[in-house]
Write a structure and sequence with these properties.
Elements (H helix, E strand, L loop, with lengths): L13 H6 L3 E8 L4 H13 L2 E7 L8 H7 L2 H4 L1 E5 L2 H10 L3 E5 L6 E2 L11 E5 L8 H6 L2 E4 L11 H14 L4
Helix pairs in contact: 2-3, 2-7
């Protein structure tokens, strides 16, 4: 077994990425304070070829050295948009037919392994602040909540890790 060189991986150019079909998924970051987490979400979003990242509230926006450090240029390939609040982003997405799910531990949440996204639908997932999670008003606006089962002592995971798990689930568990 031989490790592939970058040139052998035949990755898309930024222009090819922009023209390529996307996973019908928008990731909404609700007051994510770490620019490194924001950058990581961009990089993972590029890997799974999602539609966009919506940055809300205190979430930083490109250009930023800190975002670039973890995004490694994915902030240039993945479309993004800024909103004053996540509620505004959710309103816009809902108005054009997206099904909205907050990723949160909530009464009646659906465990991620029990959720099967439907082909032909467009989805948005809202990921919350590293300490406070998704704002309750955004949860109230959502079609539901998705929860990643956890079996240890901690009650949450890093937001960028959560984003990766969620994007993987949407890419490989029903939509593609």
């Amino acid at each position: 077994m031989r490790k592939l060189r970058t040139i052998e991986m035949n990755r898309l150019t930024v222009d090819e990425f922009r023209e390529a079909d996307k996973l019908p998924l928008v990731v909404v970051l609700d007051d994510v304070r770490s620019m490194y987490n924001v950058g990581s979400v961009f990089r993972t979003g590029d890997a799974f070829r999602i539609e966009a990242v919506y940055l809300c509230g205190i979430s930083a926006t490109p250009p930023s050295t800190e975002i670039h450090k973890t995004a490694l240029g994915a902030e240039d390939s993945v479309c993004w948009k800024y909103f004053k609040t996540a509620g505004e982003a959710v309103e816009e997405l809902a108005s054009v037919g997206y099904e909205i799910y907050s990723v949160e531990q909530a009464e009646g949440s659906t465990m991620l392994h029990d959720f099967v996204p439907e082909r032909g639908k467009r989805y948005a997932v809202v990921l919350g602040n590293e300490v406070k999670g998704v704002h309750q008003e955004v949860i109230d606006m959502s079609h539901g909540c998705l929860e990643i089962p956890q079996y240890g002592t901690k009650h949450s995971m890093n937001v960028s890790v959560t984003a990766g798990i969620i994007m993987y689930a949407f890419r490989f568990c029903g939509m593609e």
